[in-house]
Recover the amino acids of this structure.
């Protein structure tokens, strides 16, 4: 085989190997997306005295947003929503790490503040090595008292949608450092008494920070108005209207960040 033939043969083999690797990578990415989708979009739990729903729309094939539900042995249900710094596969890997820490912490801690502290302790070193962090908002729903107790690790405050008044506003503020920010953190808790048909809207900043072709952000005020306009719809319908509102605002601009929301609504007392 002469030099030109050898070179052509090597080029062909190299191209073939690259095609095979591309196909393997594509299959693995699709598999990862399927796994993440099933973890995030599993059927929501049945709650006593309330209903809950959640959805996530990644900016890429795989996202770094996270939400989860965990039934506690005391009859309460723990809800968490989070946002990993970054996007794509690296963020998705950290999201899985966060999910594992949340489930472990929820099985051995008393309240949402303790859960965040335990999560920070468990994954702080890993996040430092990876130069990443996670914002999280964790809340316990008490069906007997109809009280939501919550703690915050640098995340957006959820919105309170009043079931009887034309009112949407942020819930009372509670501060906390993002998970992975500093070691040995203590997270304060606050509580909110809910009444029938009240709704809590948890979300990630991919909604309010979405930009249109002029560079303007969607912003919190537009989200509040969207929720006011659609507050009497089902939770699933509200999710669709918020998603549609963001898409209409950003039409012509690719989605830049993951969009995730969770809704908790207190049932009407019969």
């Amino acid at each position: 085989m002469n030099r030109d033939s050898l070179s052509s043969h090597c080029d062909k083999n190299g191209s073939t190997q690259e095609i095979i690797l591309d196909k393997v990578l594509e299959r693995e990415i699709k598999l990862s997306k399927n796994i993440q989708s099933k973890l995030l979009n599993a059927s929501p739990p049945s709650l006593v005295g309330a209903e809950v729903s959640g959805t996530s729309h990644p900016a890429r094939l795989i996202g770094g947003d996270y939400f989860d539900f965990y039934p506690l042995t005391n009859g309460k249900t723990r809800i968490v929503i989070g946002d990993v710094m970054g996007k794509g596969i690296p963020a998705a890997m950290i999201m899985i790490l966060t999910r594992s820490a949340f489930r472990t912490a929820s099985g051995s801690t008393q309240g949402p503040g303790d859960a965040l502290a335990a999560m920070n302790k468990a994954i702080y070193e890993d996040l430092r090595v990876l130069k990443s962090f996670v914002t999280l908002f964790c809340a316990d729903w008490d069906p007997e008292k109809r009280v939501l107790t919550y703690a915050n690790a640098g995340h957006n405050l959820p919105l309170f949608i009043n079931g009887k008044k034309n009112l949407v506003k942020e819930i009372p503020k509670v501060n906390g450092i993002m998970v992975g920010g500093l070691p040995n953190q203590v997270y304060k808790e606050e509580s909110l008494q809910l009444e029938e048909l009240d709704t809590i809207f948890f979300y990630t900043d991919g909604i309010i920070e979405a930009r249109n072709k002029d560079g303007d952000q969607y912003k919190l005020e537009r989200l509040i108005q969207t929720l006011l306009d659609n507050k009497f719809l089902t939770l699933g319908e509200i999710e669709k209207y918020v998603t549609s509102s963001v898409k209409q605002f950003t039409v012509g601009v690719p989605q830049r960040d993951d969009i995730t929301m969770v809704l908790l609504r207190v049932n009407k007392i019969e």
Remarks:
- The first helix runs from residue 3 to 40.
